[in-house]
Amino acid sequence: MTAGSAYTPGLRASARTRYRVQRLLPIRGDVLVAAGDHVEAQQVVAQTFLPGDLTPLNMAKLLAIPPADVPECMTRTTGDAIAPGDVLARTKGIFGRFRTEYKSTDAGTIESISAVTGQVIVRGAPLPIQVKAFLAGRVVDVQLFEGCVIEADVTLVQGIFGIGGEVFGPIRVACTRPDENLTGERITPAMKGAVIVGGARVTADAIERARAVGAAAIVSGGIDDEDLRTLLGHDLGVAITGSERVGITLIVTEGFGEIAMADRTFGLFAAREGAAAAVNGATQIRAGVMRPEIVVPIDGPSAVAGDTANEAGVLGIGTTVRIIRDPYFGRIGAVSALPLEPQVLDSGSRARVVEVTFGSGGSVIIPRANVELIEE
After folding, report:
1. Burial class of residue 286 in the structure, from the number of CB atoms within 10 Å of its CB (0-12 exposed, 13-18 middle, 19+ buried)
2. Can you name the CATH fold of 310-375?
3. How far is CA 102 from CA 64, 139, 234, in A?
């Protein structure tokens, strides 16, 4: 790092970059691909099975018999597989009549039978866990029993905040300009299964309309706090997002409120109109920062000399930044100066600062901690 540069967090917005993604199982399982294989985004690359849930059955009570009589009344034994409707236990009755029996309501395996408690424990059917490639590309590494690494040349846009998990669909740009709000009337039935790209703020009616037509995701510049609260049904706490079940994945690229999408970001989406995209809304702002991403693989030769972005995290003269604190929150400009000595701020504290010049003219001097690098 030179005297005229500094390190700062950044969002990526790259027309073409080499992208790698690691796809891992939560527990050991089977990897279904080999190094060198070409995979599609929704192809299953690894799978495993989680043990099924345990269901205790108080067989003594169900049959109205002493616990000690349960084992001899069982028609199945430990380790046997059972299906719904199977008779698990039957009493002897009186002279072979007036028998009471219990039929299984679930599929699974008998785990244990106790003559002390009269309990029968049934293990439910294994729960399949499948990991999809997410990225259409080439498998460059396989981790035995765990997963793989996939690589491709892509157009990559990271958002500032998102909710919802991994979804897939073609890019559909719904707004004509990056400063236009994404409203309900811009959503059409033809956008079913699509990744809808807006301009500035996405409205509540647009979200509802997108969910109604079955869109996969919405990407826009900003969102109102209240609209997000309505969508989630509660205030969003400080945590990792991505597991929300709201019927759509939502990503904002700039922030909260009436914020236009950056011109360059909007242009990247417009240039990839119709291309298949993979979207993940998972976000973590604090320790272990994780950004929501839109990944659009590039067809054709995959030879890339390197990422067109600046050196990762390096803030230097001319680099593009977004201001992430009021009163200039969301504005984008270029670094025009990086004073070496700390300066006194309006609050009276001292901090290292950066001068940011806006494309429309004018400049501001703010703490370096108040900017975020946009890696182009």
Report:
1. exposed
2. SH3 type barrels. (2.30.30)
3. 11, 51, 43
CB 122, CB 115: distance < 8 Å: no
Q: For the beta carbon of residue 34, count every other beta carbon within 10 angstroms.
A: 9
Tell me the sheet residues that pair with 154: 17, 297
Q: In this predicted structure, what is the pLDDT of residue 328?
A: 80
Cβ pair 274, 190 in contact under 8 A: no
Task: Note the pTM of the prediction, 2 decimals.
Answer: 0.75
Secondary structure E strands in 200-247: 201-202, 217-223
Burial class from Cβ neighbours inside 10 Å (0-12, 13-18, 19+) for residue 312 reads: exposed
Topology alike, domains 10-20+149-297 and 54-124: no
Q: Within 10 A of 302 (CB to CB), how many other CB atoms are there?
A: 14
Give me the pLDDT at residue 325, please.
74
Using alpha carbons, list the distances in angstroms from residue 193 to 132, 249, 299. 18, 11, 21
